[in-house]
């Protein structure tokens, strides 16, 4: 059963009118029925679970009013796919959301384990829920792998696939890596960009540094040069 517009609006959380309309339209197209509970409130976005029939999906809503769109612009303006993007709040936020949608699909196509992207419109992205029943998979920082060495090796395998298609996550850390049934799932591909971006190598270095630090704390022995060689070799 689909809610009518008024009913939908009052049941949604407090977003601006434009965002509520976008949510309503996505739900009218059956991407989800109803927002459920807030999973997280990040710097730029609010992430909700939402019902879609008997299943759950994730709805990520970039906040139009309180997004740091200047910071976003500094990231996205060097992405070859968004050259010439106007420095305009809404345009940047919409491009940011569209880019994350497209990044998720490209990464999935390359064989990475990422949530399947289902839809996007304006500042709202819908993707597959990673978890069991109602319980969302936890971030690896909150749910330590039983076998850190094995988890690390799985992570490296995925990084190789990302590098092979000339992309970099750009915001990788134990916050944006889920531990789902002892398998790494990469999330939050909003910073993910391509090789022609002048910051490509710098972002790879930063991502790897964050992971090296985290996995070392879990006791994994890491030979940085060997890992880089493995990931970067053509
Ligand atoms: N597909 C998903 N399945 C399950 N949980 C998810 C999914 N996507 C996001 N989450 C949860 O929501 C949180 C925030 O998502 P995400 O990292 O994409 O947004 P964010 O705005 O960058 O948040 P932050 O600014 O805190 O990093 C994640 O850390 C994770 O716990
Ligand atoms: Mg995040």
Written as H for each helix and E for each strand, in order along the chain, the element string is HHEEEHHEEEEEHEEEEHH
Secondary structure: number of strands: 12
Q: What count of structural domains?
A: 2
Put simply, the count of helices is 7
Strand order of the largest sheet: 1-2-3-5-4
CATH homologous superfamily title of the largest domain: Phosphorylase Kinase, domain 1
Proportion in helices: 25-40%
Query: What is the CATH third-level topology name of the largest domain?
Result: Phosphorylase Kinase, domain 1
Strand content: 15-25%
Give the class from helix and strand content and strand pairing: alpha+beta
Mind telling me which CATH architecture of the largest domain this is?
2-Layer Sandwich
Q: Which ions and ligands are bound to the chains?
A: adenosine-5'-triphosphate, magnesium ion
Per CATH, the class of the largest domain reads: Alpha Beta
Shape: globular
End-to-end separation? 51 Å
Cα Rg: 18 Å
Average pLDDT across residues?
93
Largest sheet: 5 strands, antiparallel
């Amino acid at each position: 059963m689909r809610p009518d517009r008024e009913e939908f609006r009052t049941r949604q959380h407090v977003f601006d009118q434009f965002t509520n309309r976008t949510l309503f339209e996505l739900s009218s197209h059956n991407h989800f029925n109803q927002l459920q509970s807030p999973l997280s409130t990040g710097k730029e976005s609010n992430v909700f679970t939402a019902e879609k029939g008997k299943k759950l999906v994730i709805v990520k809503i970039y906040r139009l009013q309180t997004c740091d769109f200047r910071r976003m612009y500094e990231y996205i303006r060097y992405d070859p796919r968004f050259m010439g993007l106007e420095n305009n709040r809404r345009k940047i936020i919409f491009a940011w959301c569209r880019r994350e949608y497209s990044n998720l699909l490209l990464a999935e196509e390359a064989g990475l384990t990422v949530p399947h992207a289902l839809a996007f419109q304006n500042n709202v992205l819908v993707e597959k829920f990673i978890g069991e029943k109602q319980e969302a998979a936890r971030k690896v920082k909150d749910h330590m792998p039983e076998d850190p060495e094995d988890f690390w090796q799985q992570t490296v395998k995925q990084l190789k696939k990302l590098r092979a298609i000339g992309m970099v996550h750009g915001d990788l850390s134990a916050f944006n890596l889920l531990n789902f049934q002892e398998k790494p799932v990469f999330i939050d591909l909003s910073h993910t960009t391509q090789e022609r971006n002048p910051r490509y190598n710098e972002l790879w270095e930063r991502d790897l540094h964050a992971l090296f630090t985290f996995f070392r704390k879990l006791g994994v022995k890491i030979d940085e040069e060997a890992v880089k060689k493995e990931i970067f070799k053509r």
